[in-house]
Amino acid sequence: MSMQFMSKVLSSLQSFHSQLTILVQRLCLPVGGKWLDEYMDESSRLWDVCHALKSAISGMENYYSSASNIASSMDNYHHFTPELSHQVIRAIKVCQREILGLEEENKSLMEARIQPLCECINKSITTESKLNEFNGFRGVLYAMKSVSSLLLMILLCGVAYCCSFSCNNNNNNNNMGFGSSFMASMGRLQHKVAEEIEHEINNNGQAKVAMEEVKVELERVVVYEEEYEEVVIEEKVENLKHCFGFLRCGLETITGQLDDFFDDIVQSRKKLLDICTHN
Questions:
Q1: Half-sphere exposure (CA, 13 Å, Cβ side) for 84?
Q2: Which residue of 91, 106, 166, 215 pairs with 160 in a disulfide if CB–CB is 3.0 to 4.6 A?
Q3: What CA–CA distance (Å, rounded) separates 125 from 176?
Q4: pTM, rounded to two decimals
Q5: Interior CA angle at 71 toward 67 and 73, to 5°?
Q6: Residue 225: left (phi > 0), alpha (psi -120 to 50), or beta?
Q7: Where are the transmembrane segments (predicted)?
């Protein structure tokens, strides 16, 4: 998925959590009630999964740093000999092996995280009375869990490991006042995510593709020696630099958003605890 799309998803997650905190302050909730425990459990889950996202991002730093160094080093060369091309190809292969290892690590991370999120989305609430407890707070919290699970799953798929996006939302939620339209909205979001993934897969400007294109051009230098077009290589190198620069900027933006979200969670937990203490 594109960095812009994932940044919007993270902004939505952060905004939804902030709105929940504002709502709680307006409700007359019992002091020390179970509602606070349920909120604390949910905010802890958000905290844990967002830390997993940040870990996945930090694991990419060596990858895009190595690729950027390769592209920058090629600026110093005005003529690509077979020997020089061999050196750069070896560096590219090392970088490609790094991303393969990172993908395997993140695949394990996804297997540990994705199933609990899917289960939360698919969890069925059988009685509307449960949702109306604490002046309707439990219903709002249930909606938050469902939406945040979907948004977190989108982020994990985009940042950590691009897996099949196929969680089933065919719950028995029609007994909820907002059930059918709420789940339909989530279904539309899932469809949008599937379109975004397909678009990015078909996008030839991806960083991995750009690196492979540079490697292919240098392999031609090795095979044909002097018979190559230097302009073509320069264009491929510039595209590589652009792609990895864009990747780095996007990941830094998302990291900053995650840090802000961590601060929001801490402040919200403190604010709700203060409300109970004051009451």
A1: 14
A2: 106
A3: 8
A4: 0.79
A5: 115
A6: left
A7: 140-161
